[in-house]
TrEMBL record, chains A, B:
Pfam name, any one: TetR_N
Name of this protein: TetR family transcriptional regulator
Transmembrane spans: none
Residue ranges constituting the HTH tetR-type domain according to the UniProt record: 16-76
InterPro entries named among the record's database cross-references: Homeodomain-like_sf, HTH-type_TetR-like_transc_reg, HTH_TetR
Amino acid sequence: MSADDSQEPTGRMSAADRRSQVLAAAVQAFAAGGYHGTSTDAVARQAGVSQPYVVRMFGTKLELFLEVFDHAVARIHDAFAGVAAQDGFDVATEDGVAQLGEAYTDLVADQALLQVMMHGFSAGSVPEIAAHARTGMARISATLRSTGLDDDSVRDFIAHGMLLNVMLAMRSPEHLGADPDLDALTVCTFGEALPGPAEV
Amino acid sequence: MSADDSQEPTGRMSAADRRSQVLAAAVQAFAAGGYHGTSTDAVARQAGVSQPYVVRMFGTKLELFLEVFDHAVARIHDAFAGVAAQDGFDVATEDGVAQLGEAYTDLVADQALLQVMMHGFSAGSVPEIAAHARTGMARISATLRSTGLDDDSVRDFIAHGMLLNVMLAMRSPEHLGADPDLDALTVCTFGEALPGPAEV
DNA sequence: AGCGTAAGTAATCGACTGATAACCTGTCAA
DNA sequence: TTGACAGGTTATCAGTCGATTACTTACGCT
């Protein structure tokens, strides 16, 4: 858990490659601690590079976070757009909404993206982050709307996603069995898509 | 915005009074910045006392936050319990759910409580906070369940609340008109209960 | 070969944060 | 009056963080 998760050949790399590697590391780091709770040094250690290098690559911790956040939002957005573009997709069928829901619960497998998005959404005290959050939320809701869902359904869908994010953030799935009341909410939120007791 | 919002007689007070005053200030401060993003000094300034006094009163920044969080959850919990205890309350009627919804949107008037709750819910990287978050969420969902709502309705209700929290956190209501896509989601989330352009 | 540039680090700084210690002071009981 | 305790502050510290500077080293090109 200390350094260089996933990437081992820490030898020299092209700037572009290194950049995306650090970005991936930053996703993991920020997913855990949020903007304020994550140091650039934590990101650096996760990526296996030095701390000054991280800030020099992105200019500022804030710019780094915004890039990480935008990346997460884009990936989530793409997941929905991908489903909507599938042959025979029809949101009018109950199967249609189910497919969209699956797209989201699939993202649970890559918890970090959802957590980063969540942290961006709730970091309203940093104006730039709040601005990106509004743009990201607008983009996602527009895409859902464009699949044919009406406004209320879009709202309900996103609302359910937010609950899912929150339940993940508070580690509910990992604590199944500890509290019957929470268990009920957990299973009924995640359905059968409960993430395993896997990684952090 | 610098010191001693609301309370002016900053002269000597009983320990209990001062404690609840600082607690109220801490709610405002943590609501804005979350756990990591708020310093004990910010809380102290908001309360009009010195920073060391704040930490001595609560022992630790973490203990202070947990107390603030529990307080927020308790107030929100009470709001629902209060509605459920009203004469003639019946969740089977569509008026019943509407009443519960109103109870929540009423809380929007005191945004700080919701924001503190939200921050607690997403501060999963601090184990103690996550534990309190799970307990709080369990308590709230149990109370909703006890009004007669079935599990799915409880989930939907809480999900809607989470979306509301998130939209507040990203200052959506204050930015109405800037983005049509976000506007649609905003008005359809808040209904007619849109908070005015009032305080921070 | 050898040099220039891009990749990357070590050293360090100033600001801030949470916490501790030591001190001050108003109020109330005897 | 006086003394003691509760309420509250100033001074200060050690650790952490984001950022800057200056230095080093590997690779590609002629």
